[in-house]
Amino acid sequence: MNQVYQITDFMAQGGEVLWLLFATCLLLWFLILERAIFLRFVWPRRAEKVVSAWQARIDRDSWRARRIREALVSENSMALHAGIPLIKVLVVLCPLLGLLGTVVGMVGVFEVIAVSGNDDAQAMASGIYRATIPTMAGLVVALTGIYFTVRLRQLADRAASKLQGRLVLEVAA
Amino acid sequence: MRITLLIALLILVAPAYAQIDNLDALLRSVEEQQQEQRQLNQQREREFLADKQRQQQLLIEARRDFERQQQENQPLLQVTEANAREIERLEQELASVVEDMGDISSGFREFAGDFSAVLQESMLTAQLPARSAQLRELADATTQVTIEEIQSLWLLVQEEMTKAGKVTRFPAEIVETSGATVPAEVLRVGVFTAWAGGLFLRYVPETGELLALSQQPPARYRTAAADFGKQTTPQMMAIDPTRGSLLGVMTYTPDLRDRIEQGGTIGLIIIGLGVFGALLTLWRLAALTLLTRKIRKQLDNIDTPVADNPLGRVLMSVSEVADQEEELLQLKLDEAVLAEMPAIERGNGLIKLFAAISPLLGLLGTVTGMILTFQAISLFGTGDPKLMAGGISQALMTTVFGLVVAIPLLFGHSVVAYLSRGMIQRLDEQCAGVLARHAEQQDG
């Protein structure tokens, strides 16, 4: 219960933007996890299936075969890369959301100044919280996500080229 | 006059001359008379002397008496003096007591006056409106203070103190935002905050009314207030420790319309861009989803290409080409895919442009807002921050709008670009594969 209060307090200090950031963070991590699970558990089996289906073909050299191979590689590469551009854009959005929160907080600070003058630091404090916390949170979320975007893309590229290598073009015996 | 006296003397002397026969007799008689006279005088002298002695005696007695009396007087005199001193002391005491009483009295009135102000400010007065009149009576009286008055003030202070520490419900009239006065059950937390039906109230000391705030705090505080007392578990409570000033200030916080107005023309341009961009994004999303569905349908029956989707059109373009003419087929396919691309990617660039422009416009608004601010400073100086607030709020609000527009547009562009790129990739790289697979299936 106490932790819940701590979280809601933190969120209240950071303002509504923090919730947006929280949702972005959740989506980002959901996508990252989905990709990780796909690459780790789903992909190897699928690759095996594709390779064995290719090996089962008699014709592995004709124009048709080449086109089919191309299509297979393309399909699977797309499946491997699915969601990665979204992860990337979410990582880019996080600092922007933080910036938005900061500006909203500054609006709050200036509103306090407009109402009560600039001598009441206590009244300005909530705006300042609102200005600093989202930036920090946005940067934290972006920093945790940025590694995975690079790593996941690398893994997907590697898996795709590996698949391409395994789909060998050869003249039927 | 003198003649009358002479005549009278002659008349008196005349008989004496008549009685006296001779001188001897006269002498004798004179001697006798003298003798008689002397004896008489002696006797008188004795009598006088005796009298004198007696007087002397009396004087002594009187003196003695006086002295005795004097001695008897002595202690009484001391008593008198002591009494006089006592009287003086008592009079001084009385004076000081009267002075003290005056001090107490004026102190009491002063305190009653101060407390009257405190009471007027206190939210409790909304619950107990009769108190302030009673207190004003105490404060305004000019007579010496009485024990009853002191006790009643004490009671009031005690009451304020005790009731200020309590959470109570009481029926009262509240003024709604529309201005109508309605009876309601008010929940009061100390002298800090009051609610009626989940609405935060503000106590207005000038009129003694409870006013429903036009700008209510966030909903979670209101639901907490509405639920208060219904649950037994600990729950969140929101009180205003400044006794209503914070809630009062909150009514000054601008709503969405005020904020849009603060953004000025540039703000409106950004919002317009944002709305247009959002509509464009939604249109592209819908169109791409529809196309994806149609392509999927087309994939299920490749034999009958339909012209309402890119895949169908691409398949149609190569339908006359024989399977064996590989190069021609490839050429036709590439050509057809290239022709489809603009339709699929339509709007992407514009969405991206909007996403890029809106923060720049926000920056522009910030700069113009700062110009306004510095104009205000050059005219009025930095003394009044409120004069600068207009420019600053424009500066900040346009930045906010810029970001608020840019973030969803960026996200939307990413999704749209992802979908369209995927679709083109499918057409480009997989169309030939689909054809080849289909031909293989037909060949058996």
TrEMBL record, chain A:
It is a multi-pass membrane protein. It comes from the Bacteria. Its main location: membrane. Keywords: Cell membrane, Membrane, Protein transport, Transmembrane, Transmembrane helix, Transport. Residues 59-163 form the MotA/TolQ/ExbB proton channel domain. One of its GO terms (biological process) is protein import. It is found in: Cell membrane; Membrane. Pfam families: MotA_ExbB (PF01618). The chain crosses the membrane at residues 17-38, 86-108, 128-150. GO terms for cellular component: plasma membrane. Belongs to the exbB/tolQ family. PANTHER family: PROTEIN TOLQ (PTHR30625), TONB2 ENERGY TRANSDUCTION SYSTEM INNER MEMBRANE COMPONENT EXBB (PTHR30625:SF18). This is MotA/TolQ/ExbB proton channel family protein. It comes from Halioglobus japonicus.
UniProtKB/TrEMBL annotation, chain B:
Residues 20-100 form a coiled coil. It is found in: Cell membrane; Membrane. Residues 313-428 form the MotA/TolQ/ExbB proton channel domain. InterPro entries: ExbB/TolQ_transport, MotA/TolQ/ExbB-rel, MotA_ExbB_proton_chnl. One of its GO terms (cellular component) is plasma membrane. Keywords: Cell membrane, Coiled coil, Membrane, Protein transport, Transmembrane, Transmembrane helix, Transport. The chain crosses the membrane at residues 266-291, 353-377, 397-419. GO terms for biological process: protein import. It is a multi-pass membrane protein. Belongs to the exbB/tolQ family. This is MotA/TolQ/ExbB proton channel family protein.
